[in-house]
Amino acid sequence: MRRVFKISLAPALAAMALASLTVPMAADAQVRPGQTNRPGSSTGENADGSQQNQRARAPRIAPLRRNAAAGPCPYVKILYDAARYVELTGDRVSSANVGYTGEIEGLSSDCAYQGDDPITVHTRVLFNLGRGPQAEGEGRTYRYWIAVTERNKAVLAKEYFDLPVNFDGAQTATVTEEQVVVIPRADTTTSGDNFEILVGFDVTPQMAEFNRTGSRFRVNAGTAATPPAAQ
Questions:
Q1: Distance between the two ends of the chain, CA-based, in angstroms?
Q2: Contact between 173 and 150 (Cβ < 8 Å)
Q3: How far apart are the C-alpha atoms of 146 and 157, rounded to whole Å?
Q4: Which DSSP symbol is given to 221?
Q5: Backbone φ and ψ of 108, nearest 5°
Q6: ∠ CA(210), CA(161), CA(219), 5° rounding?
Q7: How far is CA 202 from CA 5, 58, 60, 101, 105, in A?
């Protein structure tokens, strides 16, 4: 499934571009390894200076078409604490108690700006979603957010989005979402690397703590395995 939305954060940012705010971004350093995406940057290197092997596995999500930008693009990341969505029932963490699940599996982005134009960032997010044994019904409306921050400082704007999913009898579903984020610039010297764009599920504090500990279930957690053939 694929849905395309377009958003503009310009109204919220116009009055506070690069201003110091008092709203901290919790766990801003806890970004899932391998999910950081800074368009226009070079291939990553290991500690010994060697290039990482990018051919080891196929990309999870198709890259966006590259646009011309007068400077670096904002850092675009998945917030680790909100990268997964796991509903749990009962008083024990087990696959038998899993309801609906979700994981942000991939993220790609690109940006464009020239002169004193706003920074326009195109993002593409890949969601893998699932139904555990405690899931009720054929559908679930997940919720996720996109936040723009002044890099390593404060949240400038945050927008929430509903993600309705109908599993149609299946245990898993895949959804690709595309969003456009517009960031005003104070002047021509304000480049994209002054900002970060973070993506995550709208999770409860309990879900965030579950993610923070590194615990996880697959999106089809609790699905019964095919019984062995009778002897």
A1: 41
A2: no
A3: 8
A4: T
A5: -135, 155
A6: 40
A7: 18, 28, 22, 12, 16
pLDDT at 226 over 70: no
| C-alpha–C-alpha distance, residues 66 and 64, integer Å | 6
CA distance 101 to 67: 35
**Is the distance from CB of 181 to CB of 9 less than 8 angstroms?**
yes
| Residue 59, SS3 per DSSP | coil
Residue type, 41: S
pLDDT-derived band at 214, boundaries 50, 70, 90: confident
Structure tokens at 37: 């995406």
Q: Which residue has the tokens 């694929």?
A: 2
SS3 100: strand
pLDDT at 180: 93
Residue 170 or residue 29, greater confidence: 170
For residue 44, what is the DSSP state?
P
Is it the case that residue 61 has pLDDT exceeding 70?
no
* CB within 8 Å of 45: residues ≥ 6 apart: 51, 52
pLDDT digits (tens, 9 = 90+) for 17-33: 444 333 333 333 334 33
Give the whole-angstrom CA distance, residue 219 versus residue 99.
Answer: 10
Region of residue 219 (phi > 0: left; psi between -120 and 50: alpha; otherwise: beta): alpha
C-beta contacts of 224-230 below 8 A and 24+ residues apart = 224/133
DSSP assignment of 134-186: T--SSEEEEEEEEEEEETTTEEEEEEEEEEEEE-TT-SEEEEEEEEEEEE--S
Tokens of 46: 């290991």
